[in-house]
C-alpha cells in the first residue's frame, strides 16, 4: 500500500503502535509454565481493548490472534492449551492489529504486523546468539531502507549476517507489502535475488528475517499452518512494519521500550 491521504498516516501509525504495544505486553508474560493459548487470550483482549481488530483471527481461517512458534517452529504456529513453555525454549510471537476505517462507504483496513523471538527463562548462549543475530539483521535492513532502495539491498543486508554466522536463511517466507487485505506485493526476500524493484516513499511494508540454527529447509505440519525446520533445529523470526520515506523509514510497530538508533530520521 502506498499512503496517499493525510489521514492514512494516522491510521497506519495507530495500527502499528497497538501491534507493537501488545507484543511488548505479551513479552512480559513469556515464562516457563504459560501456554501459548494463554498468550493468545491475552493478545485478543489487549488488541480489542486498544481499539483494534486482531488481524490474524479468521485470516484464511487461521484460528488465533497470534502465531506462536516454539523452538523448531519457524512461523505460523497455532496457540494451544497443551503447548506449555518451558525453561530454555525460544518462542516467536507474530501479531497483527487492524484499524478499520471506511473509504468510499466501504471498509478499509490499516494493519500493523510485527514479530519477535523471545527466550523462555534462561537459554543457551548459542540460542541467545541466534536471537540477537536475527534481530540485528532486521535492524541492518531497516538502516538502509528508504525511497529508492532496492529489494536486493534489503535482502543483501539480511543475507550477509545470516551467511557470516552460518545460519539457514529461510527462503520460502519473507517480508511483504501491507495493504487493506494484509499481504501485498512486493514479496521481500531475505537474500539477494537480483531484484531491481525499488521502494517508493509512502510505501508500507514488513521486513521479517527468519534464521535457522541448521539448514534453510522448512516444511508445513499436517495442521496446515505450522512451519517447522526440516532438521528440527531452532529458528528465530523478527519483523517490523514500516513506512518508507525519502530519507529513511518510520518503524510503525516499534515496541515502547525498543531502542532503534538512527532509523527514525524524519
Ligand atoms: Mg508479516
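^ C-alpha cells above, recovered residues below v
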Amino acid at each position: 500500500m502506498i499512503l496517499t491521504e493525510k489521514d492514512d498516516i494516522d491510521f497506519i501509525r495507530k495500527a502499528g503502535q497497538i501491534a507493537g504495544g501488545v507484543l511488548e505486553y505479551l513479552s512480559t508474560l513469556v515464562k516457563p509454565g504459560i501456554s501459548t493459548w494463554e498468550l493468545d487470550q491475552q493478545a485478543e483482549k489487549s488488541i480489542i481493548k486498544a481499539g483494534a481488530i486482531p488481524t490474524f483471527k479468521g485470516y484464511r481461517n487461521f484460528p488465533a490472534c497470534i502465531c506462536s512458534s516454539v523452538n523448531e517452529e519457524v512461523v505460523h504456529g497455532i496457540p494451544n492449551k497443551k503447548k506449555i513453555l518451558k525453561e530454555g525454549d525460544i518462542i516467536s510471537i507474530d501479531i497483527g492489529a487492524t484499524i478499520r476505517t471506511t473509504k468510499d462507504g466501504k471498509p478499509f483496513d490499516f494493519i500493523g504486523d510485527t514479530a519477535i523471538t523471545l527466550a523462555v527463562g534462561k537459554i543457551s548462549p548459542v540460542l541467545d546468539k541466534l536471537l540477537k543475530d536475527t534481530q540485528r539483521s532486521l535492524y541492518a535492513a531497516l538502516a538502509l531502507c528508504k525511497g529508492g532502495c532496492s529489494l536486493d539491498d534489503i535482502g543483501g543486508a539480511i543475507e550477509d549476517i545470516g551467511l557470516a554466522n552460518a545460519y539457514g536463511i529461510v527462503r520460502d517466507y519473507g517480508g511483504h507489502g501491507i495493504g487493506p487485505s494484509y499481504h501485498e506485493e512486493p514479496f521481500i526476500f531475505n537474500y539477494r535475488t537480483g531484484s531491481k524493484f525499488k521502494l517508493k516513499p509512502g510505501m508500507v511494508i514488513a521486513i521479517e528475517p527468519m534464521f535457522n540454527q541448521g539448514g534453510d529447509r522448512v516444511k508445513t505440519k499436517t495442521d496446515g499452518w505450522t512451519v517447522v525446520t526440516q532438521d528440527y533445529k531452532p529458528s528465530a523470526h523478527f519483523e517490523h512494519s514500516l513506512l518508507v520515506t525519502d530519507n529513511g523509514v518510520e518503524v510503525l510497530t516499534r515496541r515502547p521500550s525498543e531502542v532503534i538508533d538512527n532509523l527514525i530520521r524524519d
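Residues 126 and 198 are 36 Å apart (CA to CA).
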